[in-house]
Amino acid sequence: MDNVIMWLQIWGANTNVGKTVISTGIVSQLLKRVAHCLYLKPVQTGYPPDDDAAFVQRHCKQLWKDDDRGVDQRLSCKKLFVFEQPLSAEEAARRQGEQVSDQQVMQAIWKEWENRHESAIIIETAGGVLSPLPSGTSQADGYRSLRLPVVLIGDGALGGISTTMTCYESLLLRGYDVPIIATIDQGYPNWEAWKRTIHEKDTLIIPFPPLPPKDIPLFSDWYLKPQVQQAFQSIVEHGNTYFTKRSKKWEEMEQNAPKLFWWPFTQHGSTLHPVIVDSAFGDNYQVAQKKSKGTHSRPPFFVFKSNEDSSSWHLLDAFDGVASWWTQGVGHAHIQLNKSMMKAAGRYGHVIFPQVIHQPAYQLSKELIETVGYPWANRAYYSDDGSTAIEIAIKMALRLYSTRHGKSQQQQQLEVLSFFGSYHGDTLGAMDCCPKGDYNELQSPWFQPKGVFIEPPRIGMQNGRWILDILNGNNNWFPTDSIANQVHWDSWDEMADWQRVDSEIGNMYQQYINKVLDSSSTIATLIIEPLIQGAGGMRLIDPCFQRILIQEAKKRGIPVIFDEVFSGIWRLGVLSSTHLLGVYPDIAAYAKLLTGGLLPMAVTLTTEEVFDAFKVFLRNRANRLLIV
Amino acid sequence: MDNVIMWLQIWGANTNVGKTVISTGIVSQLLKRVAHCLYLKPVQTGYPPDDDAAFVQRHCKQLWKDDDRGVDQRLSCKKLFVFEQPLSAEEAARRQGEQVSDQQVMQAIWKEWENRHESAIIIETAGGVLSPLPSGTSQADGYRSLRLPVVLIGDGALGGISTTMTCYESLLLRGYDVPIIATIDQGYPNWEAWKRTIHEKDTLIIPFPPLPPKDIPLFSDWYLKPQVQQAFQSIVEHGNTYFTKRSKKWEEMEQNAPKLFWWPFTQHGSTLHPVIVDSAFGDNYQVAQKKSKGTHSRPPFFVFKSNEDSSSWHLLDAFDGVASWWTQGVGHAHIQLNKSMMKAAGRYGHVIFPQVIHQPAYQLSKELIETVGYPWANRAYYSDDGSTAIEIAIKMALRLYSTRHGKSQQQQQLEVLSFFGSYHGDTLGAMDCCPKGDYNELQSPWFQPKGVFIEPPRIGMQNGRWILDILNGNNNWFPTDSIANQVHWDSWDEMADWQRVDSEIGNMYQQYINKVLDSSSTIATLIIEPLIQGAGGMRLIDPCFQRILIQEAKKRGIPVIFDEVFSGIWRLGVLSSTHLLGVYPDIAAYAKLLTGGLLPMAVTLTTEEVFDAFKVFLRNRANRLLIV
């Protein structure tokens, strides 16, 4: 066990439930097993009368007084931030006029760890689980990026069943593992109720015998009771088992997951590089690796060396550079997002939607129509992902076209107008909006592009200036490259200026677009990713070209779909790409940032004209729009 | 306000935080406004020394002693179940040898309400939010079906920031509204921290001045302090505002939601019957209605009569008869399901999946392959809903067929074999697996059935016997109806007997199936809803026919897809329809019960042979299976 770096964080169901007493026993027990131990009290209030680090040091020294392995050298007990008033850390800091940010607390902890690399670290929190750090952030939120395994000191008093289990739930909500709940017997068998109701069944729940009266300052006798020694031993062993299980699970997953999973967007015949994501918080994953790869902003959380093989597991921070494919807006495991989901799940679970009104759907629809959909949209159609939102959009658009042009939609060939390099999803209808390419060609024999596809002029950046990047494309319609070569802009505003519609290039765009639209009788819908083609390679399309195209389509009664799955809801720095383009679609699809990725959900926004095109004043089942 | 029926439930952040003191003040204040008031203490422990109902009655009488409107007639204070020991209700009941179920507690509350119809009802809980009922169920879970608005009595002591906010979160997790948090000042400004951190910003957070010393048995002087009177007035007014807002929101939603929503599976040209679902629990919705319609198992929760118009809003229980389209297995807002989701959300939020391993995905894949997919499946491909799971299944099956038969999938017309009346979803690829029908014909001009469709023999029930229901179909291949008329079975086992494959009817099936399979060169996949066609009208298909068909398809190397979105994961009383059919598919799709509807998720299970058909030992992006 000497190879294990054991981190445990001690939390209390309330203040004064025995956190420091139990910490002392755990530290003392750990000293039997590891060479060095670090006890940290990051925030100490009521100091100096209250000094938990000194308490732990004093008692451990007393408990180890007959041992010649010098506890003074083997144990460091430190407090990092101290406040005089015996109040919440926030209130105490305020009264003292001191400001300590959450980041400062975390950095101070990391500094201790980097300087020492002790084999075991115990961090004791202050007060209860949601008691504030000096900044006002609850401890459970402030320490979340560590996600250390929890020793929850349960409340042994009357009422302690509830105070302990509510703390447990608040820890669960923040994704903590709670392998151990310890408590001091105060005459109520609260732990029996916890055992019956606890959510994760491998938690060790362990009661300690009553403490000696308060007026005995050093109660070494209590610690030396066989029953107490036994209990501390169980805690340390269970902690060890927890860590062993955890790395064994990584071992098992690394071996077996590639045999069970069929990953999306992955060619399994190639060499795979699976990543074990142990948890995620903010912009980072916590990744478990057999050995440290590359550089990291800080050292591994914990290193586990198994006795059975020579490899060691590291737990590291890794930056989620693609924001989990653009779904993350406020970061992973955002507490407010999670609370909102929890409330909705607790209030409804899932309820069927046809002809049902409920508050979350109402509130969301109202806000969508007043924000991303403003001022053009007034109907919200919900589905599960970007692909389904596009399938719905296509059904809407083709029906609208048929209605506008007074034709039956069954009696004609209806196609989309779209760009090379576009991507709208992987269900068949979404695939059929795209030209042949990497993402679809071999995917299904049923794939059959149903569109007129053109190569749009792109915008690039060269030497800090926006340039027209027209040469790499298939733009044989663009007369010479000499004009393109002359064109550049010093700022976004200049490049995105509406005036450009009337420029020489704008006129060329106009001519080409008219030619495309007038030479086809099948174009029934324009579908574009506004401004940027995401999956197509983050290609910026000339907004001038898109503006003219949209206007010309609208003139001809061709419905316009914006696929805003990637670009919508602040991804481009604005609520919707309509704010950058200055033109509106008839239909737009949103997903990804809509839920911050927390659960699959998409919405297709549209106008009353589209909605009305589906109304039939007959009880005809077939005239419903059906995708769910 | 006399028209308002106000229900409030008083919860404590801990025991001994002043629940009864505050209840008394609220009741006393309510008596100024309503004719009759009922105070209920459903569970009283430590009785008779502790008798909260008597405390409320005594103090209200004292506070109203100068009033001639006879408080004795206007106020009923009742306890419903009493226990001697001053312990948790569970422990007290156990020691007393009494068993009181949650249902008994709820029925006793309803009985009081039915017999009285008071204008205001205050229900006081015992101990903390998660303190147990006599059964051991936490109060927050046991009282959930009422979902009464909460007055949370916050903990004013040191540590009370945490104990109160953890209780708040546990209430949120169960979907409660917490319009009011009250607390008694004990020298710590805990309420200021609550104000800063509370999740729902319209909660009234209100402190009361310190109580007089414990040894004053009747502290009327405290109640009569202007500051205290003011605070109780605020609580009652805020309660009133809460109820007003709530019914105004129903009013607003009823009016505006039909202008914002585009409901799925709804013909908006027909007369609509929107239902306002205020919450859901177990098998029931709580529905808000302008007036009571139909009969209900119990009276409305609360009736609100607005002064502004003559209509009144009722809140009623309504049975979710279709299990929210077969998504519900364990009922709405199931606490264990919600806790599991909460833990996952807190630990990860959402993380991208390609080449990522994490524990929930690993655990689920393992369990799926060991349960519903046993013994045939060994790969799990996740997506968002039944439609996407089917799109994936189709891509898999067509690729497998091509690989097995050594053909390029692009160079041939590949179709499915499927049944009339089948339904597989509403994305284009899923639609194309079905024949023309109500669910697709007018939906999209791109819809083009890609299959050979046959009418399967159905099984019906007549006079308690299973009969072959072949006459209603298009089965012109079935020689005479005389045979069919002779066929019936007394039990499911008899009807579903494998021996029937060799019966006279089985032979007829065999001939027909051979004819269908041998006469088409395009059939590349068999896709069926095993046993029951769900959306097609809950039609039971003769299992004997399906067995023969599956066996014959397999003989010819035609991959078999089971669409188990409806039938899978215990919906038919077994883990998978494979247990009833006794034959296995190559690919199967699951959704709905997979998450109990809690969030959209689907999985397509398949074999290693299918998986291998997608492996290319080149870095070729196009050979990935792409749907996500």
UniProtKB/TrEMBL annotation, chains A, B:
One of its GO terms (biological process) is biotin biosynthetic process. The keyword Transferase applies. Its EC number is 2.6.1.62. Its main location: mitochondrion. Pfam families: AAA_26, Aminotran_3. Keywords: Aminotransferase, Transferase. The keyword ATP-binding does not apply. It is found in: Mitochondrion. GO terms for molecular function: adenosylmethionine-8-amino-7-oxononanoate transaminase activity; dethiobiotin synthase activity; pyridoxal phosphate binding. GO terms for cellular component: mitochondrion. This is Adenosylmethionine-8-amino-7-oxononanoate aminotransferase. It comes from Galdieria sulphuraria (Red alga).
